[in-house]
Amino acid sequence: MNYGIAVFPSAEIQEFANHYRRRYDPHFALIEPHLTVREKEEWNDQQVHTAIQELERAAEALEPLELQFNRFSTFYPVNNVIYMALADPAPLVRLHQKLCAGPLAEASKLYAYTPHLTIAQSMNDDELHDVLASLKNKPLSFQCTIDRIVLLKQEEDGRWSRHREFLLQKA
């Protein structure tokens, strides 16, 4: 089974993102708006058990994260994706580094980790530029507190479910 690690923004932010995702994201029905912390990977039962132990340990030592979305951006020309970007990605980058080390270390990646909330993907170049042009002048200002890490499991139909949640507990 495929597993991944993500955080989920507030309901208000998810609702806003879904306004665009319904139209521009073919994965809309497969997963809620989220920020990926660790990419999906096929894990066996032992790897899932190890991941749960590591996530429990990490969550005990981590404080909730404050995130602010302040603009729309894109990965073009590398990837035709439009996303909601963070004013300060450092807290999520640190979380990614912490969770992708030790037993959960990832194989080397082609791209640097860039925390983001996808609102559009799998578009041709013209559509991407049209949509991005319409969004560039729209103000974007959302804040939320991330108080948990979520271990996701990909079901046989391709949908992602919340396998387990880990509350960030450091006071």
Structure notes:
With 171 residues, the chain is an alpha+beta fold. It has one domain (2-167): Cyclic phosphodiesterase (Cyclic Phosphodiesterase, Chain: A, Alpha-Beta Complex), CATH 3.90.1140.10. 31% of the residues lie in helices and 32% in strands. The protein is built from 4 helices and 8 strands, in the order βαβαββαβαβββ. The protein has a 4-stranded antiparallel beta sheet with strand order 2-1-7-8, with helices on one face. A hairpin with a 5-residue loop joins strand 7 (148-154) and strand 8. The longest helix has 17 residues, at 45-61. It is globular. The protein starts with a strand and ends with a strand.
Instruction: Estimate the mean pLDDT confidence.
Output: 95
Major β-sheet, in short? 4 strands, antiparallel
Range of strand content: 25-35%
* Helix/sheet category: alpha+beta
State the end-to-end distance. Answer: 34 Å
CATH top level class name: Alpha Beta
User: What is the assigned CATH homologous superfamily?
Assistant: Cyclic phosphodiesterase
Element-by-element helix/strand order: EHEHEEHEHEEE
Condensed summary:
By secondary structure, this protein is α+β, with helices and mostly antiparallel strands. The protein is built from four helices and eight strands; from the N terminus they run βαβαββαβαβββ.
